[in-house]
Structure formats: C-alpha cells, structure tokens
Backbone:
C-alpha cells in the first residue's frame, strides 16, 4: 500500500480540489484529501494526504501557516481580492510608511476577524459565497484567529507586501482589508503565496501537474512528517502489538503526560496518535 503525504505547490488557476483530483487519478483506490484550502488565484503549499494518512488532516490543520501577500491600497471589491469588480476608494488618503509600520502590531496575537462575505463559511448550511453570488445579504460574525507574525516586506503605494504567519481559519484577504481600514483606506489582495504549512515548505513542494503514474509515489513523504510538533514514544515490539490491537500499555512515569503523543515503531514510522 502506498500511503503518505504530498507537499504540493498549487499553481494559480486551479482549485485545491483540482490538485487533489490529479493525485486521486494515480492513487485509486486509496482515499485522498487535502489539509487547508487555497483559493484558485492563490499559489503555494497544499498538503495532500493519501491512504491512512488522511486521518492526520485535522492535525495538519492545526499547524501554523506562512504567507507572502500583496495588497493594493485605495480600492475595494466585494470579494476583497481581484476576483470581482474593483472600485477605487476616493475618500482615503495615502498612508505613510511609518503609519503602516505602526498599525501592524494591532493585528498580532489573538484577534477578532470577520470572514469575507465571499468565503466558505456556512450560514444555515449554505456557503457564504453561494449566498453572496445570489445577491443575498451576508452577515458573518467575527471569530477569534491567531496571528503569530506580520512583517512589512515592501511598500510602494498602492502595493503593500506582507509576510504573515498565522493559525488555522485566518483569512489573509480579511487581514489586508482590516489593516487598510485602520489606515483610513481600503485594500484588495492582488497575490497570495503560501510558503509553508508547519514543516511543509514551498521550496520542497511539487507542482501537481508534474505528477504521473510513474513518479508520484516517489514524492510521498512519511506520515511522521505531519506530527513532528508532537512528543514521540517508541514502545517495544510487544507494546506496539497491544496498541495495534486496541490495548493499553504502561508508560515510563518520567514521560510527559497530558497531551497527544505520536507513537513510532522501530523504523521511525508512525503507528498512531495517543492521548
């Protein structure tokens, strides 16, 4: 059985589902799924799990994500990016560089963020973007998100480029929108590159269009790579057999208890998650 994780570099112009479908053609009958959608216009790391590794998708969702995003100040759109009609914002001024730098710390840490109206958030079982496209009123409540780092890369009005590391559920479009409002103007996201999901980095990622029936298996990474942020336990062979059969084992009292643990075998392969 071929199972593991693919670190893909999704190109702009295809959906995350399109990328999964490419892998699915080669991997059948194994299950295939991705951890963390990228908008069609966005580019970068898309983590795709194959076979039993699909059970790790919730854990991968927890990993921090890094982006480089380019915004155009002084304009707005219904989608907060270039996928809908862009309108110039005539009432705003051109923010000074010092003002941009001073505003960034306000968006660090745990913040409240309203998702874009055109987003996959569900309202009464319907995707917000479906309602918005039908001209329905969309009212999304703010939600708590975590921004670990936000750095100014380049500012040449109207272009503003930021490097961001954040937790799951953070909308980069909305971050640019809210930053611009804090600066007395508006913004649309013009480009987005996801550079990393945890230890899965764009420099090591593979273009899904380069995969074929002969080479895709060689691009698989071990399931272990998805849980490197967890403490590890390597039980002896007898204990591993008990765990695989649903049993319990005794653990060294000096081992830290209280969270999830990645259980590895003698070949350093992931057996499962305990805790």
Residues:
């Amino acid at each position: 059985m071929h199972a593991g994780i693919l670190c893909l570099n999704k190109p702009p112009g295809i959906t995350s589902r399109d990328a999964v479908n490419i892998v699915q053609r080669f991997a059948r009958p194994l299950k295939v799924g991705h951890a963390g959608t990228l908008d069609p216009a966005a580019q970068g790391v898309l983590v795709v799990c194959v076979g039993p590794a699909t059970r790790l998708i919730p854990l991968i969702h927890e990993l921090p994500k890094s982006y480089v995003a380019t915004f155009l100040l002084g304009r707005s759109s219904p989608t907060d990016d270039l996928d809908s009609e862009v309108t110039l914002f005539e009432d705003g001024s051109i923010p000074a560089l010092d003002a941009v730098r001073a505003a960034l710390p306000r968006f660090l840490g745990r913040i409240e963020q309203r998702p874009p109206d055109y987003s996959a958030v569900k309202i009464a079982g319907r995707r917000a973007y479906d309602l918005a496209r039908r001209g329905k009123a969309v009212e999304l409540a703010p939600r708590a998100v975590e921004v670990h780092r936000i750095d100014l890369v380049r500012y040449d009005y109207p272009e503003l480029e930021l490097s961001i590391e954040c937790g799951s559920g953070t909308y980069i479009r909305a971050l640019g929108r809210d930053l611009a409002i804090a600066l007395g103007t508006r913004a649309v996201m013009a480009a987005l590159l996801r550079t990393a999901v945890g230890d899965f980095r764009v420099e090591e990622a593979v273009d899904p269009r380069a995969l074929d029936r002969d080479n895709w298996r060689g691009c698989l990474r071990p399931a272990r790579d998805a849980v490197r942020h967890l403490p590890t336990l390597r039980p002896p062979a007898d204990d591993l057999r008990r765990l695989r059969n649903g049993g319990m084992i005794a653990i060294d009292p000096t081992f830290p208890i209280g969270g999830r643990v990645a259980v590895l075998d003698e070949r350093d392969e992931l057996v499962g998650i305990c805790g």
